[in-house]
Structure formats: structure tokens, C-alpha cells
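Second attempt. The first submission of ABC transporter ATP-binding protein had a stray character pasted in from the spreadsheet, which I only caught after the job came back as garbage. Lesson logged: always re-copy from the clean sequence file. Corrected sequence (247 aa) follows.
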Amino acid sequence: MNQTTLTAPVARAEALTKTYGSGENEVAALRGVSASFAPGQFTAIMGPSGSGKSTFLYCLAGLETVTSGSVMIGDVDLTTLSRTQLTVLRGGRLGFVFQAFNLLPVLTAEENIRLTARMSGRKADEAWFGVLVDALGLRPRLGHRPSQLSGGQQQRVAVARALLTRPEVLFADEPTGNLDSRSGAEVLRFLRSAVDAYRQTVVMVTHDPVAAAYADRVLFLADGRIVDELTGPTIDAVHARMRRLEG
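This time the job returned cleanly.
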């Protein structure tokens, strides 16, 4: 494997734009955003309300269509794929964790974890399944339904589900937004360990400087553009950048 292959980004956006509505009602959510995401890198995306951060994440994950520009996962341009092709790609190559967990209430924790793999027709790696449930402390809860789990446990189930297929990129939209500080820290520590131990690429939207400090870098959006970047973030440094943007 040559050096170019080793350092090629897992995902990247090129001159990405996204508009809603038309004419006088047109709203530009993204205005020519370009960014790349390296293998084994944890990136947090932050910005004031309405900055376009969640729209950017959804476009990167193929959950939103783009108005112009490209979104590459490896050498595949998501903007050229049909809806069916996108569904297949997301099932096998991308993982997504939502703020609201999005677990099916009639399924057990184990069934929810295995759901994406089954829907994409992929056979789960049982050894990897075991690693995930043990690392996330879920083995005693595998037979429980979501209503029998705490919020933190539900989100850990959602993380395990997203990682079971070993996605090239894990996208997370405010994954600690509905959790208390202790449960949120458990989820963030696992995401950090997935990057460090398994070279997982993680892209996370958050409003919380404490969560952002777990990342390797933070991209800051304002008015649909990337306006700043911080590497090796600390809580205080993220606070300061956000105060400046919101001021």
C-alpha cells in the first residue's frame, strides 16, 4: 500500500451548497463548504444555531441531497447515486448515531444492534459484536427492550448498531444531547477509544464544548461556511471560539 492510499481521506466535501425553497423564500444553508476527513480522525462540527452544521452532517452522510458540489466517500460521489444505491452504501459503509437514539421499541437491545447489518444483508462478525457489547457494557442488557433501558444505555445500543458493520465513517448528530453528563461522557469516551483503538473515523455535530474536546479537531461553521478550525481542542479554547462566533 503506497503513502497516497494511506493518507487518502475517507470522506470529503467539495464546494458543497444546499439551499431550501426558491425565489424570495430561498434559504442558503451551506455556501461552498469544502472539508476532508482522514482515516482514524475524530472531527467535531460546531457553530451557532442556524449555522448549517447539522445540514452539513446530513449531506456528508447522504441523508440530505445537495444543491451543488460533491460528497465523496472514498472514490464514490454520493451525489451521483440513486436512492437505492445510497441506501446500499449507507448500510455497508456508513454508520449514523442520532440524538433521539432511533431504536425500534419492539426489538431487544441485541436485535436493535443487529438490525442495520440484517437489513443490508450483511452477516455480522460475531467476534466484533462481542467486542462492542462488552466495551459498551451492554451484555447484561441485550435481552431488554428500549423502554427498559436508560437513555445512556439506549444511546450505547445505537452506537453499537452503527459500528457493527465496521463503517468507514461514523456520523453522530448531537449524540449526547439527550443524556445526562455521566451518560454522555460514557458515550464520548467510547467514541474516543474507537478512534484510538480501531482507527474509526468519527464526524460529530455538537453544541457542547466538553464533547468537542474529545475530538482531534473542531470545524466551526457560521452562515453556511467553515470559518475556523481548531486542532487539539480544549474545553476553554472551544468556549472562546464559540463566544467569538456568537458575539
